[in-house]
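Regression check, nicotinamide-adenine-dinucleotide case 490:
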Amino acid sequence: MTLMLRNYVHGEWAASHAAESLPVVNPATLEELEHVPLSSREETAKAVEIAHDAFLAWRNVPPGDRIQPLFRLKALLERHIEEIASTITIECGKTLNESRGELRRAIENVETACGVPMLMQGEFSENIASGIDEFVIRQPLGVTAIIAPFNFPAMIPFWFLPYSIACGNTCVLKPSERVPLTMQRIFELIDTCGFPPGVVNLVNGSKEAAQTLIEHPHVQAISFVGTTAVARSIYAHAASHGKRVQCQGGAKNPIVVLPDADMEMTSQIAADSAFGCAGQRCLAASLAITVGDAQRAFTDAIAAAASSRRVGYGLDDGVEMGPVISADSRERIEHWIARGAQEGASLVVDGRKPRINGFESGHFVRPTVLDGVRPDGALAATEIFGPVLGLLHADSVEQAIALVNSGRYGNMACLFTSSGAAARQFRSAADAGNIGINVGVAAPLAWFPFSGHKESFFGDLHGQGRDAVAFFTRAKVVVERWPREWSRRF
Ligand code: NAD
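Current build output:
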């Protein structure tokens, strides 16, 4: 019998009264794991109101005390890393190593947020005029809400959650309804960390819960990660309700390979970027642009890497790539592979409809490489979010950079070369928020902003590090006059 997941509100587990629920399914085995309630407007609003009440006391807890439960959470996440990693693999499909890596990144954000006593310090100018000082203090906002995607069930909520609460806000998290088990487990740990009731809350659900968070007058800030269409609409909708918003959207990440790159290393790194996490990473390479003579060597090497990748159940030893999240995703990916071929690309490696022994009904697509992708075609412009790499060719670095910049997204762009001058030119001219030089997944560490340009990001302050601290606080400027003559002389 499958169980119904619970919400976590006011420091307690609460059964949802939702009329609807969805099964949570292992994408490799199709085993039904649990059911996730689609929490109603009323239930979600209740969580916000509880978070609002908790804010009044939490904001006055000194920052040095607010981070103590986060230190405990860090230790607990370290202790339970294996168990949480296997939960991620079971519900999301990625390999165990990928899940461990994701969790490391989540922990790193907890560690960084523990620096909040210093990170949220203000600024002070003494004597801006005779007897007058001016300073900025940074104060928390109130209730903040996080709406997360399916592809990193542990890491992405942690781009925001630890910073929000360390800064003195309270928080309501809505995980993706497709992968709710990871946060259910992490909230069991959060429950033991000593946060006052109502500071950190978990509401399971989908659009209705998300819309309630976006519209509720007590919610001051929305952090969203997901597809560009939803990011754009939430950005506009939340802003029209007067909220501070940061919305990270989709991607179509190009990598550029110059003839002077180390081809063996480049093709390995490119394969890990394009096919790691089954291509379901917002920093996955999905277009490779070879320049001049790089074309032949790279095409052969990436085709070999794609064909030899070991695909299977993420919990099994030696597996390098798991399934995609759902049957819909698999169909969408297969549709785009066919569309690329219709647009004239040749299928160097075709990963459609593979047979994975023991997991015949799982949502698997093997790594796929399409050569000669039309730069002005739909395939080159569309996020596929699967293990599909399209190849394009350019005659010069300048032409390659022009191709990079012609896309609607701007999450990541990478260059492979042994030329410092080319690297310098690329990092300056490529219009993307995260740049990799001889790196295939340019994921910023927790103390850097998780950037994104163009249609990959709507807002100005990003997740992680100082940007997150600025997002979750607002500045108050104080100008103070204390003339000596007003004071009693001592
Ligand atoms: P999604 O947009 O389908 O869902 C994201 C979240 O939004 C979920 O919690 C979902 O319940 C909610 N949601 C969906 N539709 C909504 C609506 N109309 N109103 C309110 N809430 C709604 O995204 P997904 O498929 O879960 O995630 C994959 C996408 O996320 C990809 O496009 C990927 O590139 C992107 N992504 C981006 C980054 C980044 O940093 N830019 C990181 C990870 C993933």
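Comparison notes: The chain has two domains: 7-249+456-477, 253-437. The CA atoms of residues 166 and 481 lie 32 Å apart. No diff flagged against the previous build.
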